[in-house]
Amino acid sequence: MSRICVVLVLFIVCTQALSLAESRHKRQVTNQFRNKNYYVESLIKANFYNAFLFCQRLGMRLLTIDNNEEYDYILNILRTQIQFKPGSKLWTSGTDLAQEGTFHWMSTGFPVLINKWLPKQPDNGSGNENCICFWNNRGTIGFNDEQCTDVANFICESPKL
Ligand SMILES: *[C@@H]1O[C@H](CO)[C@@H](O)[C@H](O)[C@H]1NC(C)=O
Ligand SMILES: [Ca+2]
Ligand SMILES: [Ca+2]
């Protein structure tokens, strides 16, 4: 077989493997609340930026939380579907990277309106905490500002079709 054929066959095999992986991701989107679907990534850990990119690649976006009801829905996923043990973290798209001290959802551009901070958070720890994650702080779950380069699980969302 000529070299070009080998390359072609490899290309076809690879693209098929990729689309298989993608359809597997799509099938894992089983959580729905109001007008959104959610993909819960509880195996892969990534920093804030890579979590953001990962969701975009799925045609989705990193989690935003519009109101207390949606917060409770996500909290229930953490409590019942994944092992969100003490110390666990999970990224949302909330960040004050654009303006220190003012948090917005990076995925939608809107301000973070709900107040779900854990006690003493956000504390801008080490002067370098700019991304919002869910954090299980010894049994209490809530928001924490965390270093964006930390790795954590994450949830992608998309408007329901
Ligand atoms: C966070 O820390 C940085 C670096 O020390 C500082 O410039 C910034 O003002 C702090 N943010 C807040 C809200 O205090
Ligand atoms: Ca900050
Ligand atoms: Ca913090």
From TrEMBL:
Pfam families tied to this protein: Lectin_C
Record-linked CDD domains: CLECT
Keyword Manganese appears in the UniProt entry: no
Gene3D superfamilies, per database record: Mannose-Binding Protein A, subunit A (3.10.100.10)
Transmembrane stretches, start-end: none
Limits of the C-type lectin domain: 33-157
Keyword ATP-binding carried by entry: no
Classification via InterPro entries: C-type_lectin-like, C-type_lectin-like/link_sf, CTDL_fold, DC-SIGN_domain-containing
Keywords of this entry: Signal
Leader peptide range in chain numbering: 1-17
PANTHER family: AT17652P-RELATED, C-TYPE LECTIN SUPERFAMILY MEMBER
The protein's name: C-type lectin 37Da-like
Source species: Nicrophorus vespilloides (Boreal carrion beetle)
Recorded name of the encoding gene: LOC108567792
